[in-house]
Design brief:
Layout lengths: L15 H15 L28 E3 L9 E12 L5 E11 L6 E10 L14 E3 L3 E3 L2 E12 L5 E9 L8 E9 L14 E4 L11 E9 L5 E14 L2 E14 L14 E4 L9 E10 L5 E14 L2 E13 L14 E4 L9 E9 L2 E13 L3 E11 L5 E6 L3 E2 L2 E12 L5 E9 L5 E8 L14 E5 L7 E3 L5 E4 L3 E4 L7 E6 L9 E9 L5 H4 L6 E4 L5 E3 L1 E7 L4 E11 L4 E5 L18 E7 L2
Parallel strand pairs: 13-15, 31-38
Antiparallel strand pairs: 1-30, 2-3, 3-4, 4-5, 6-7, 7-8, 8-9, 9-10, 11-12, 12-13, 13-14, 15-16, 16-17, 17-18, 19-20, 20-21, 21-22, 23-24, 24-25, 25-26, 26-27, 28-29, 29-30, 31-32, 32-36, 33-34, 33-37, 35-36, 37-38
Length: about 600
């Protein structure tokens, strides 16, 4: 459902021009803002779209300083956090390119805060933005690029970044974890770590280039502890008596609330975890996500090399989803899997690479979002499918699911990248969806019941797609059900899913590309008041992404037994036509008297049937 502004009535005697202006104003109040570019130019789902009350058509852009004769500045956002007051923090990287000698570029952490309507919050930092100064390292500095962020209970923002550079006078490069804390007003929290920053190195000392650390994820525990995870690389490693070139392990560290390494965790606050299942070749293991159980145990999810596979004469290193669970003290938990470790294999084809990308702990289950490579083609490259795996508290596999997504006759390659627990305890799996026709892409969301199985009342057969837009990092769920995520250079917010709408389609009886139809069918999951639902005067059908043109309605019928509304138009339309059905606020109600739209006008995007 897309919420619109309420229409205002105009009374009294008016001139023709006044009537015209009032009509145009009324239409403008009820018209649609631009929406994300959909498949064939339209939104796919009946109950999820970009929120027209946020930013411009659901997008709040990130302004950059004006270019100068010597430098150009660009900004990207990776992660978001939603405050309790509805304001939204976007976290990313600001890059300054020098366009004259000595050229080069510099990267610093950027934090931006917008109000609930998507406008910059001028009370935060400088005009709504704060750029973290270069990180001090010895007598020099390091650059930082943002990886992930989490909001503390007190409203302070904790950022995980990758610190890198070659400090002045050093013969080696630095690649470390950096944890930064920002105050609520958009300034460094100098009470945290060393002046607001804690650098974490998983090497034996900052005097060699043997360690290459890559941070990926952050979580805040029930006692306020900060846990960060990723991987650490070494050029060589001894495994089963053999020297293995190029080895990478899980890496995790725990900080106290003041930014100091928690020495009660692991070794000096740090721990590495090795699966070492790759045999005598590469052993690349990496953590992509971290979650903290209520008892303080730490769950890490990512990938582990498990050997090689030969396909058409080419040898590939294949991997499984890898899960590690540590005790609250940072030791491998012997009650979980094989001494705290478990791997999950899908092996659906091609190079047999499976990976875990997100994890939540729900009702004594560990639920993992991931992806598995399936095949390869010349148009789109590797084709994969999103996966959802449920494990018991002992690492036994409860269920495995693969998302074979097909909509409007287009098959999609998908990757499971985000996972959220909604207010009704259902799970929302999200990620990228790339059409195998090579021209369509977007962000998909699939809703699962807590105990397993897709909730078909969500979107179309359980899945919504926002086309032409993807999430760069995590997805946050507002209390009202709206989804918030960064879209690389902006913050995006969706409408709240309308649980009353199951499907909304323009029905075609033939498959030709020039086929036309004038029959709209909307199926609800609640029984509407037949006396109201069958009245064609309450509906408008708009044409185009902005909804400025009208389609004339011939007749309307409602079948209470099947909870189906049929709108027959006077004009027939092709599959690629963007149509919306608009219903005024407080008009269409269930037989129990509950209005659709919660006091706001309802806009239902219509998609073509297959």
């Amino acid at each position: 459902m897309i919420s619109m502004m309420k229409m205002r009535s105009v009374f009294g005697t008016r001139s023709r021009n006044e009537v015209r202006r009032a009509t145009m104003k009324r239409r403008a109040q009820f018209s649609l803002r631009p929406v994300a570019e959909g498949l064939e130019g339209r939104e796919l789902m009946a109950n999820l779209g970009l929120d027209p009350t946020f930013g411009f058509g659901g997008i709040a852009n990130t302004p950059n300083p004006a270019s100068t004769a010597t430098a150009d500045t660009y900004s990207s956002l990776k992660d978001v956090a939603v405050q309790s007051d509805g304001k939204i923090l976007g976290v990313g990287t600001r890059t300054v390119y020098q366009n004259q000698a000595p050229f080069g570029s510099t990267n610093n952490i950027l934090v931006q805060r917008v109000n609930a309507d998507g406008t910059l919050d001028g009370s935060f930092g400088s005009g709504g933005q704060f750029v973290v100064p270069s990180l001090k390292f010895g007598s020099g500095t390091l650059e930082a690029t943002e990886v992930a962020a989490a909001l503390q209970a007190d409203g302070k923002l904790v950022i995980l970044a990758r610190a890198s550079g070659t400090p002045s006078g050093s013969m080696f490069s630095i690649n470390d974890f950096a944890v930064i804390r920002i105050m609520q007003n958009g300034a460094l929290d100098t009470s945290f770590g060393d002046g607001g920053v804690r650098l974490i190195d998983f090497g034996t000392a900052q005097t060699t280039s043997d360690q290459y650390d890559t941070p990926t994820s952050i979580a805040i525990g029930p006692n306020g502890q900060i846990v960060v995870a990723g991987s650490t690389f070494t050029p060589s490693k001894v495994v089963n008596g053999n020297i293995i070139p190029g080895s990478q392990d899980f890496a995790v560290a725990q900080l106290s609330t003041n930014g100091a390494l928690d020495t009660s965790f692991g070794t000096g606050g740090k721990q590495t975890v090795a699966f070492d299942k790759g045999g005598n070749s590469d052993n690349y293991d990496g953590a992509n996500a971290v979650a903290i159980q209520p008892d303080g145990k730490v769950v890490l999810v990512g990938y582990a090399d498990v050997g090689t596979v030969v396909i058409n004469g080419t040898t590939y290193q294949n991997s499984d989803i890898a899960v590690a669970r540590l005790t609250a003290q940072g030791a491998q938990d012997s009650s979980f899997g094989n001494n705290g470790l478990a791997t999950i294999s899908y092996d659906l084809g091609y190079d047999q690479r499976d990976t875990g990308n997100a994890v939540v702990v729900l009702d004594n289950q560990i639920v993992i979002a991931g992806s598995s490579n399936v095949s390869n083609n010349d148009i789109t490259g590797t084709i994969g499918t999103a996966t959802l795996t449920r494990l018991s508290t002992t690492a036994a596999i409860s269920s495995k699911f693969t998302l074979n997504l097909v909509q409007q006759g287009i098959s999609f390659s998908t990757s499971g990248e985000t996972l959220n627990v909604l207010s009704d305890s259902t799970l929302l799996l999200g990620g990228t969806a790339n059409g195998q026709n090579g021209s369509t892409y977007g962000q998909f969301f699939t809703n699962f019941f807590a105990g397993g199985g897709i909730n078909n009342a969500y979107g179309t057969n359980g899945t919504s797609i926002l086309s032409g837009i993807t999430a760069a990092g995590n997805v946050e769920v507002q209390p009202d059900g709206k989804l918030v995520f960064s879209s690389y250079s902006s913050i995006a917010r969706t409408t709240a899913p309308d649980p009353a709408v199951l499907t909304s389609q323009l029905i075609f009886t033939s498959t030709g590309k020039n086929a036309k139809s004038n029959s709209i069918v909307i199926k609800f999951n609640t029984t509407l008041n037949p006396a109201i639902a069958g009245n064609k005067k309450i509906y408008q059908v708009r044409i185009g992404k902005k909804g400025r043109r009208f389609a004339a309605i011939r007749r309307v019928s409602y079948d209470a037994a099947t909870q189906t509304l049929t709108i027959t138009l006077r004009q027939k339309f092709k599959r690629n036509t963007q149509l919306f059905v608009l219903i005024p606020a407080n008009t269409l109600a269930s037989v129990q008297g509950q209005f659709l739209g919660a006091g706001q006008p309802v806009a239902i995007p219509i998609v073509a049937s297959n």
